[in-house]
Amino acid sequence: MENGGAGSDPLSPFLEAVERPQAVAVAASLSSLFRGRAVWPNRFLLCLYAVGFLDFFGVSMVVPLLNLHVKSLGVSSTIAGVVGSLYGILQLFSSTLVGSWSDLVGRPHCLLVCILFSAIGYFVLSISTNVFLFAIARTFVGIFKHTHSVSKVLISDMVPKKERLLVIGYFNAISNFGFILGPVVGGYLTELEGGFYLTAFICASIFVLNAVVFWMLLRYGKKMHSHEWTIINKARSIISEEISCFN
Q1: Is the model's pLDDT at 42 over the cut of 90?
Q2: Tens digit of pLDDT for each residue in 207-245?
Q3: What is 34-71 written as a DSSP string?
Q4: What SS3 state is found at 106?
Q5: b vs e for 168-204, b when ≥16 Cβ sit within 10 Å of the residue's Cβ?
Q6: Ordered DSSP codes for 66-99
Q7: Which Gene3D superfamilies match (predicted)?
Q8: Which residues 6+ apart lie within 8 Å of 174 measured at CB?
Q9: Per mean pLDDT, which of 4-18, 25-39, 149-163, 226-240 is the most reliable?
Q10: In a designed cystine with 142, which of 12, 87, 158, 237 is the match (CB 3.0 to 4.6 A)?
């Protein structure tokens, strides 16, 4: 018989020999396992979409206001320019380090740490009543604000190659939608008393929310992983018992 025919399945003799209730139990266990694996990535991707949206939404509320705020602190245009370029310089040198670190600890944990430290940076920005605090805030954000890049690498790791471009396209589109809405909300908040500090605080709160959501999803993922291995072990046990009956 040619390969790929009806009788080419190497498990056919075993399935024919096993009593129907046991075979059904094995099939049900494996079916439950694969259903769990299908649901988990979908929930994970939805969470990453939300992370990308909130990330760009929060950042874009603050970014248009930075230059005006640093000048309002009474520094010269030269100092304002130097402090303004601090973020880009730190991003340039920290991107390689964060990428290497994510290889060591894993993308999810690296992303969680980046979100948390970015939240700290924006919280410091919300109390930056002098240029020194402003520089500290931009230092934190410059070093750790690689959330978008790490998210895309994480998507590349978990999505099959044939679907990767489509999923990353969705991620970029949703993130950019947040980048469109952010300046509108930030501009409105700036008109309020202490508007810049309020906007920066809301941005920090958004990053904290991002961290909490992602952390809860990681905990769910660990429970799901443990549940999958329980099902696998049960299926193996059933198969071993059935094989021993014929030995």
Answers
A1: no
A2: 999 999 888 888 766 555 444 445 545 555 665 565 565
A3: HHHHHHHHHHHHHHHHHHHHHHHHHHHHHGGGHHHHHH
A4: coil
A5: eeebeebbeebbeebbeebeebbeeeebbbebbbbbb
A6: HHHHHHHTT--HHHHHHHHHHHHHHHHHHHHHHH
A7: MFS general substrate transporter like domains
A8: 49, 52, 53
A9: 149-163
A10: 87
Average pLDDT along the chain = 79
Distances (CA, A) of 211 to 118, 228, 231: 10, 25, 30
Q: What is the pLDDT of residue 242?
A: 55
The two tokens of residue 186 are 């930030």
- As a whole number, mean pLDDT of residues 187-215 equals 92
Q: What is the token pair recorded at 222?
A: 């660990």
Chain position carrying tokens 């979409």:
49
